[in-house]
Amino acid sequence: MRGKMDQNSIISSKNSNREKLFAALDSCGQSYSDECFESIIGLFEQYDSHGVQGATLELKDENEMTLAGRFLWNDGIKGSVLNETSEAKGIKFTTLDLIKRESPAIYENLTDWQSTNQSDANHKTLSALSKETIVLYIPQYVSASKEFLLDLILSKEGKGAAVQIWIYLEKDAQAVFTLNLRSRDTEADNFFAGLLNVFVGEGAHLILNEVQDFHQQTYSYTKKSAVVARDGDLQWNICELGSEKSKSNSDLILSGKGSNAVVNGLYFPNKKQSFSLLTRQSHLAANTTSNLYFKGAVSDDARANWEGMIYVDPVAEKSDGYQKNENLMLSPNAHVASKPGLEIITDDVRCSHGTTITEIDPNQIFYLMSRGIPETDAKRLVIQGFFDTVLHKISYEPIRTKLQEKIYRKMD
Q: Can you give the pTM of this predicted structure?
């Protein structure tokens, strides 16, 4: 009995520390102060967040697909590899420290970009907390035909990660990048604090994929910012499936005339998971276009909160902004909140938003069962069909297939 009580006490203490760290990050992210940040440092010290070189890699992902480059961070053991074509074109996919030593001109360019990058309290907090910076740099006019994968794994007991990720595409560059946040089969006390900064240069094109599928004892707190320059194009695909508690803050900034972005999002919390997703589409130049479409299914005792905002600057005439959020309730105990918003400070624009919260239509289930499909399978088909409308907007077939498989497995 004493051993069981001690074990329960340890679990309670871990949960309390994670909640305190998560709350401190949230508080400091809204209003930064040195005192608040010191408390974050103290709380994060309970996690081992150090990384060491040592991983030997192949240029393939977990599904054996050949890649242009791969960076692995596996419970702190890291390594990276590029194919010969990428190296010959001057592409960099490594740590900022290594770029500083080997390519000082690129390092100066990147740090100049960061010094002028718009930052808020959230950005400042996570940047100061970060232990290292991982960079993908694509030179001007370079087109990479294969995918770059950053594979970050958290599974080991007491392991944490505080990481910055910079993606920088020069003028007329093209690339596909995937951030894959995942865990092994085991579940342990883990914490992820991530800061993602993206720049899509003039006329450049980026497909940016994010998959958060940590195990359900991980806490995840992320801030993401993507800036698109004149005539640049971004497709941003966001998927939230894992972790016990997650907050994701995504800012899209259309800074150049004629820039365009499509943001596709899906989330599927179950059991006692809690997801908070904040999105902002900022139109800061004329003739810019953004289209955001998020869909979420929420089951068991899970919670999901989405808040979106479209901001149109006074100079951003003839801009077109759209956001839509649709939610499917799969349990009477599930909780969903959805709050779209518009802030338009100019005329001659077209902006709109919409949101829905629904349950599975029993007539759909009855129809499928009348054709001999068991009730459980009928519900699976309805959920899959619900997500298909956003999945079909993802043009990069490998990530679309991967997300379809992950959704199907989560319905088990």
A: 0.94
Helix residue ranges, H only, 258-354: none
Centre a 10 Å sphere on the Cβ of residue 302 and count the other Cβ atoms it contains.
23
Is the Cβ–Cβ distance between 156 and 75 less than 8 Å?
Answer: yes
Instruction: Give 272's DSSP letter.
Output: T
Sign for the pseudo-dihedral over CA of 389, 165, 233, 348: positive
Residues 103, 96: Cα–Cα separation, whole Å = 10
366 and 397 share one domain: yes
Number of structural domains found in the chain: 2
Same domain, 368 and 356: no
Within 10 angstroms of residue 375's Cβ, the number of other Cβ atoms is 11
Q: Which two tokens stand for residue 68?
A: 């242009």
What does the pLDDT look like over 202-234, one tens digit per residue? 999 999 999 999 999 999 999 999 999 999 999
Greatest distance between any 2 Cα atoms in the chain: 71
* Sequence-separated (6 or more) residues with CB below 8 Å from residue 309: 279, 280, 281, 340, 341, 342, 343
Strand partners, 226: 198, 252
Q: What is the pLDDT of residues 120-141, one digit of tens each?
A: 888 999 999 998 999 999 999 9
Task: List strand residue ranges (DSSP E) for 185-273, in order.
Answer: 190-200, 205-213, 218-228, 233-240, 245-254, 260-267
